[in-house]
């Protein structure tokens, strides 16, 4: 483990994820030939960061499944249905951290329990710290980016359609993407 630096120690505190300057997205293969990108537009999160002991860091994120957006209303409705997210029964997707491990001066692995459709599995997301800045309103902001690939079938998301040419309509592997701007709370 990399020793905490003085710069990290200065970041100690509780942060709220700023949804208007953050993105939680995903990428799935479609018809085996292209990628469909989407995001969730309604989410909130909290980060309690301990710069002296980064392993004590705690992160929670709650995503409203109904906020899924792939820029296609018909597809979004299908993704909200029982075939995919079953949002009427499981309106939220959640992540609760269980471990934080610094892997380099500006990189870390965040491990936690991801719950989709009421099914929970551990995931580890490698993140890069993008920096800190004070915005025009005097708020300290920190930025992080990361991504991880999951198998949607592990979460009970099994719907698919076979293609005449072989293969399936929607990939099992989904890349989750996180571009996070978080504001330090007073």
UniProtKB/TrEMBL annotation:
Q: Which InterPro entries match?
A: Lipid/polyisoprenoid-bd_YceI, TTHA0802/YceI-like_sf
**Positions of the Lipid/polyisoprenoid-binding YceI-like domain:** 14-183
List the SMART domains: YceI
- What Pfam families does the annotation carry? YceI
Q: Which domain of life is it from?
A: Bacteria
Family assignment?
Belongs to the UPF0312 family.
Q: What is this protein called?
A: Polyisoprenoid-binding protein YceI
Organism source for this protein? Micromonospora echinospora
């Amino acid at each position: 483990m990399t020793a905490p630096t003085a710069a990290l120690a200065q970041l100690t505190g509780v942060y709220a994820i700023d949804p208007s300057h953050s993105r939680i997205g995903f990428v799935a293969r479609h018809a085996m030939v292209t990628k469909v990108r989407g995001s969730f537009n309604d989410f909130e999160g909290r980060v309690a960061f301990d710069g002296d002991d980064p392993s004590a860091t705690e992160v929670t994120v709650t995503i409203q499944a109904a906020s899924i957006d792939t820029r296609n209303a018909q597809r979004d409705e299908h993704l909200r249905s029982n075939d995919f997210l079953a949002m009427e029964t499981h309106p939220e997707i959640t992540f609760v951290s269980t471990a934080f491990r610094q892997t380099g001066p500006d990189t870390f692995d965040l491990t936690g329990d991801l719950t989709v459709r009421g099914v929970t599995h551990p995931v580890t997301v490698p993140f890069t710290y993008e920096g800190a800045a004070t915005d025009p309103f005097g708020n300290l902001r920190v930025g992080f980016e990361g991504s991880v690939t999951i198998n949607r079938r592990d979460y009970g998301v099994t719907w698919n359609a076979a293609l005449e040419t072989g293969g399936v309509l929607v990939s099992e592997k989904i890349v989750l993407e996180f571009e996070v701007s978080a504001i330090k709370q007073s």
